[in-house]
Amino acid sequence: MKLKIKFNSNDSQLLQREFFYLCLFFQFYSISVKGPIWLPKKIKKYTVLTSPHVHKKAREQFSLTQYSGFIWIEFTDLSILSFLQNYALNLQGMIISFQTIL
Question: What percent of the chain has pLDDT over 70?
Fold first, then answer.
């Protein structure tokens, strides 16, 4: 069974650390891993007027950067799926999605 695990986070160091720990875990249990494959970062910029009335040139810009990447794994033991679901529930500051290919 093949599984694609996609990670999204606003913190690039957290994302790299979780990729590293998962790759070590998969290598320990001799599960084939392809990746991590990094996707382009998405930057959203917001502009806020600081003056409420006449000074339109007084503005501030804020940006929100989202980092993402994914890993392909291939395994035969279905207990890996339950581990990954529990792992995804315990992470904070990240969004993990799974896509299986039989």
Answer: 99
pLDDT at residue 13, as a whole number: 93
Rounded mean pLDDT, 80-102 = 83
How many residues would you count in the chain?
Answer: 102
Kindly report the CATH number assigned to the domain that includes residue 42.
3.30.70.600
DSSP state for residue 48 in the 8-state scheme? E
Measure the CA–CA gap between 4 and 73, rounded to whole angstroms.
Answer: 7
Q: How many domains does the chain have?
A: 1
User: What ranges make up the beta strands (E) of the chain?
Assistant: 2-9, 32-49, 59-74, 94-101
